[in-house]
Write a structure and sequence with these properties.
Number of domains: 1
Radius of gyration: 15 Å
Structural class: alpha+beta
Helix content: 25-40%
Largest sheet: 8 strands, mixed
CATH class: Alpha Beta
Oligomer: single chain
Order of helices and strands: EEHHHEEEHEHEE
Shape: globular
Number of helices: 5
Strand content: 25-35%
Length: 170
């Protein structure tokens, strides 16, 4: 099942082996400008130092082996961010990021709202689980606004929020 979808301001395209060379190239070229130090500051080490096309190609190949990867495009076809999905049993562990110049514009809300709607109708997942660094107040507020519930577990400064897909969006 392809997880591509569109929102008011975003075109969200799953990137995989069947994606066009144009999409792969577009994402590879954009990665060094998206994965800046400010964007990846609280992310795992393998997100750090993606500052060349060669590093971006290697990072993209590794990510495509580890998870489902969705590229976020603006209405002008510019790559503005990423959505990561790791499937575990009947749950989807998700992560998302936006290029720094797109912070604070409501795009993450739009992305997650669209993804929740898609996942609720077209997937076998029971829950969406988002991990967020405890210092990332904007993402924590966003997850709460979308009815994700904080879980008791915490690992290495990461908080976890769950969205039960059986409850629907509120």
């Amino acid at each position: 099942m392809n997880l591509s979808f569109t929102t008011k301001r975003l075109n969200v395209i799953e990137i995989d082996a069947s994606s066009s060379m144009v999409e792969h190239h577009q994402l590879t070229i954009a990665l060094p400008t998206i994965l800046t130090p400010a964007v990846v500051a609280n992310l795992p080490g393998y997100f750090q130092g993606i500052d060349s096309i060669a590093a971006a190609e290697k990072w993209l190949a590794n990510m495509l082996n580890e998870c489902r990867l969705l590229m976020l495009q603006s209405q002008h076809q510019e790559v503005v961010g990423l959505l990561f999905i790791y499937t575990e049993n009947h749950d989807a562990l998700i992560g998302y990021l936006l290029a720094e110049q797109y912070w604070g514009q409501g795009l993450a809300f739009e992305l997650l709202q669209g993804f929740i709607n898609l996942a609720g109708t077209q997937s076998q997942w029971h829950k969406l689980i988002a991990g967020v660094d405890e210092s990332n107040t904007p993402s924590i507020k966003l997850l709460k606004k979308l009815a994700f519930e904080k879980q008791a577990s915490k690992e290495n400064g990461m908080l976890f929020y769950e969205f039960n897909l059986n409850q629907g969006i509120q």
